[in-house]
TrEMBL record:
Residues 25-247 form the Alanine racemase N-terminal domain. One of its GO terms (biological process) is D-serine catabolic process. It holds the Pfam family Ala_racemase_N. One of its GO terms (molecular function) is D-serine ammonia-lyase activity. SUPFAM superfamilies: PLP-binding barrel (SSF51419). This is Putative amino acid aldolase or racemase. It comes from Mesorhizobium australicum (strain HAMBI 3006 / LMG 24608 / WSM2073).
């Protein structure tokens, strides 16, 4: 680990990057892409999740490697950027949008939005989007959100989906493309209740029951899965799975379904100060807490901080609750024997990729031990 982060540090210095940045290891990313290609069931296509990979060059790199033009989208400004960057892209909303958001996007009359499939989770939203289609004199593509165990919304049972499908003929401007299921709960089901494998099998069976209610021309999009489960699906009713975070493997995605994947994204930031830390107040309090192991005898202050990330280098670098977090200069505890100097780099591994990838401006792209490019990120708002 020390040699790896020494290489990253040298690359950052050579590139004159001396402020917090998001670093992407392209070689590790390509290794993760290769694992997806090797393990993905051949009956399934990948739909890339733009919120988790919110960088057009990153989406392009993965999309070309996998030969996919399918994307799942969540936020209209990102949706529009993706539509303009990728003329062949087919976009599915991964959450239902307020009808006002759809109206704002569609009322400009831009033809690129015809490549978007809107998500419908209730009869009420179906009626709203039907009214919007009539108002605009446009045909809107829709897919139905179905609940296969996560219980976060969507149609809760096949009969409810049938009622929505029966109402479709009254909404002449809506065209059903299929369904979207999400089973993010499956990896977290304890053995007492059957464990992840049973939960995943049940989710697939439930999805099949919903799909059975669709007409033959309403099955273009049969979407299931996320990064934690996509590679575990084999032989089900779905024709595509969604994946995003798996490609860069943030901490929250250290799951059995992604064994062998490597973290490819890190927050890198200079160490500003190396200190023998003391708490405000009488020195005896700090010495007592140090003797009790509650406060470190050595520490450092980082350039920035308070990120959704876990420290990974220097080794055994830790946060300390007594001094708390700071987005300006965050204190980190160090082991007493740590050899660290101001100007060295600290590295943290994001807990998630969405939002975090966009926090630092252009991504520093590492390949062959050098920073070879800076990739702009998509807007957060």
């Amino acid at each position: 680990m020390k040699a790896y982060f020494a290489t990253l540090s040298d690359a950052l210095r050579e590139a004159d990057i001396f402020q917090p940045c998001l670093l992407l290891d392209l070689d590790r990313l390509d290794g993760n892409i290769a694992l997806v290609k090797k393990r993905l069931d051949p009956s399934l296509a990948v739909r890339l999740v733009d919120k988790s990979l919110a960088c057009l060059p990153l989406l392009s790199h993965i999309g070309k490697a996998l030969g996919t033009h399918r994307l799942m989208t969540f936020h209209p400004p990102i949706t529009e950027a993706v539509l303009r960057a990728f003329p062949d892209a087919d976009l599915l909303y991964g959450k239902p949008m307020p009808v006002g958001a759809a109206r704002a996007a569609l009322s400009r009359g831009d033809a690129v939005w015809s490549r978007v499939c809107w998500l419908i989770d209730t009869q009420e939203r179906l009626a709203e989007y039907g009214g919007l289609a009539d108002e605009l004199g446009a045909e809107l593509r829709i897919a139905f959100e179905i609940d296969v165990g996560l219980h976060r919304g969507g149609f809760a049972e096949p009969a409810a989906l049938s009622r929505a499908l029966n109402a479709l003929p009254t909404h002449k401007g809506l065209r059903c493309e299929g369904v979207m299921a999400y089973e993010a709960h499956a990896p977290h089901i304890p053995g007492l209740f059957g464990g992840p494998a049973k939960a995943l099998a049940q989710a697939s069976e439930q999805a099949a029951a919903f799909v059975a209610r669709l007409g033959a021309d309403q099955r273009h999009i049969l979407n299931i899965g996320g990064s934690k489960t996509a590679l575990l699906h084999h032989g089900g009713i779905a024709n595509e799975v969604s994946m995003g975070s798996a490609f860069v493997l943030p901490v929250d995605f250290d799951t059995p379904g992604l064994d062998g994947f490597q973290p490819a994204a890190f927050i890198a930031t200079p160490i500003l100060k190396v200190v023998e830390p003391m708490l405000p107040g009488p020195p005896a309090v700090s010495r007592l807490l140090q003797a009790l192991g509650r406060f470190p005898r050595k520490g450092c202050y980082l350039y920035g901080g308070k990120w959704m990330a876990e420290p990974v280098f220097p080794e055994r670098m830790t946060r300390n609750g007594l001094l708390g977090l700071s987005s300006n200069q965050q204190f980190m505890g160090l082991p007493a024997q740590a050899v660290v100097r101001p100007g060295d780099y600290a590295f943290l591994r994001p807990t998630q990729s969405e939002a975090v990838l966009q926090h630092f401006g252009p991504i520093a792209v590492l390949s062959g031990g050098r920073i070879v490019d800076r990739w702009p990120v998509l807007p957060m708002m």
